[in-house]
Amino acid sequence: MSEPAHSQVPRPSASRHVDQDDRRPHSLGDWLKAVRDRVISRPGFQRWAAGFPVVRWKARHGAGHLFDLCAGFVYSQVLLAAVRLRLLTVLAEGPISVPALARRLDLTPEATARLLNATTVLGLTEPRSRGRHGLGEWGAALLGNPAIGAMVEHHTLLYADLADPVALLRGEGGPTALSRYWAYVEAEKPTDISDAAVAEYSRLMAASQALIADDILAAFPPNGVRHWLDLGGGEGLFARAVATRAPRTRVTLFDLPAVAARAEGALRAAGMADRVTAVGGDFLRDSLPGQVDVVSLVRVIHDHDDAEALAILRAARRAVTADGRVLIAEPMAGTRGAETVGGAYFGFYLLAMGRGRARTTEELRAMLVQAGFTDVRVVRPRRVMLACLLTARPDPIARVS
To answer: Is the dihedral of CA 174, 177, 183, 185 positive or negative?
Structure first.
């Protein structure tokens, strides 16, 4: 029997030719951290820290953090069970006993009690008087954001792709569930993608945009904008939010033809077809509507590798007026207060998707300058976990290619 392909990949630990200079501390900070690592990794130190009053709180916090890292998948599956069973919707009707709840969920009382034990410690539910249960603080918050439920369901694809994370990192697993879900990722000609291929992800994006549209426009008001172009605007929720806040602003949405057609239907249903125009095309290849005051890229740039991301920014530079602005809104790596979002979550999500990466504000700043922009500014919205904002103006002396 032949050896599996992945076993033939050289392991760094097997190499005896590691440059020893790379192992040595090159600064005082490196040396101090190396000492810290050696000390903390000793079992004897961990036992001492757990019992020493001065550092006991830190040791306990660290132990809890390590356990949460190990148990995070279990927590997410508890949340998935709550979403699929509509547990929070039932509890929103009012406190209910375990036997009555079991009948509503089509579970045994024992299984219902087990689920409630889990959701209670996670803050989704909480005990009430006379043995009943109701919504917890986080359960109520989740119920008020239907998009979160849609994302919880969507994550089943991501978890399938992450079943063997090492194979994913080495590119050994073949096409992923997420690359098939985002149909344009592997399409030879994205403009030919059918409505059936874009329908599911378009609905997901429309639902999730509701979480961030208000935050973006509160941080970057559309007042005084004559023409706003939203690139990759999906079914138009963000474009509609712009038009609602600025009734005198002309708004254009640009996305793949099948997506733009869905946006037209959504705009007609919302009575906003005369306020927002949907245009179909490929912003990597086709000309964009020109002479616009603002070009917005909401969760677009991080979906693309560097060459494509730069091409999109250059297209935006050609479309915007001399005194206009480009707006990038997406999770960014290294954002204070949201480090895990860019560094861990989107790092692996976009790997499974097949392209793109979360970039730091400095990386995006450099790309914007290369694309012909200047005066790059970071704008912190209310919830940086959802998106951070960068704005820039055209550089009047930069040559636009």
So the answer is: negative
